[in-house]
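Sanity check

After download, print the first record. It should look like this:
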Amino acid sequence: MFSVGELVVYPAQGVGKVEKIEEQDVGGAITRFYIVRILSNNVTLMVPVSNAENVGLRSVSDEKRGIEILEYLADRSDFTGYSGQNWNRRYREYSDKLKSKDLIDVAYVLKELFLISKDKELSFGERRLLEQAMGLISMELSYALSVDQSQAKSKIEQFFDDVINRNSAEEEEKKAE
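Expected C-alpha cells:
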C-alpha cells in the first residue's frame, strides 16, 4: 500500500505523487482510491487501491535499479532492429511495451528506436514513441539517481553515443584487418 506523499509510477504516464487516498461510493459500494498527480503534466488519476497492482502502479525505481537500466541501455546484444518487421507491427509492439509496469520494457523501446534511428529515419509515429519512452525513462531515472531530468536524459544519450562510437570503431578495425 502506498502512502500520501509517496512517489509512484503509473505505466505509460510516468512518475506521480500520491496526493491523497479517498473513499467514494461507486455503484453503491464504497471504494478506496489513490489520487495520483502525474508530475510531468499535472494529470490527476484515480486508481482503485484494490486494483493498483493489476494496473501496474508501483514505487519509483531505486538507485540500484536505475543503474541496471542504464547498463541495459548500453548493452546492444538484444538489439533486433527493424529486420523482418514492418513499422506497423513494431509500432504496436512498442506501444504495448510502453504500457508495461516493468521499466525494462520501456527501456527496450527506447534502445530499439534510438538505435534504429541511427540507421534510418523514423516515421512520425516512431519518433513520438521514442520521445515518450525517453520522457518516461529520464523522468524515473532522475528520481532514482537523484539528478535533474535533463541530466538523466543527457546521461542516456551519452550511453547511446558511446555505444555507437565504440561499435563504429570496432567495425573499422575489422575492415582494416
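If your output differs, re-run the checksum step. Summary of this record's structure: DSSP finds six helices and five strands in the chain.
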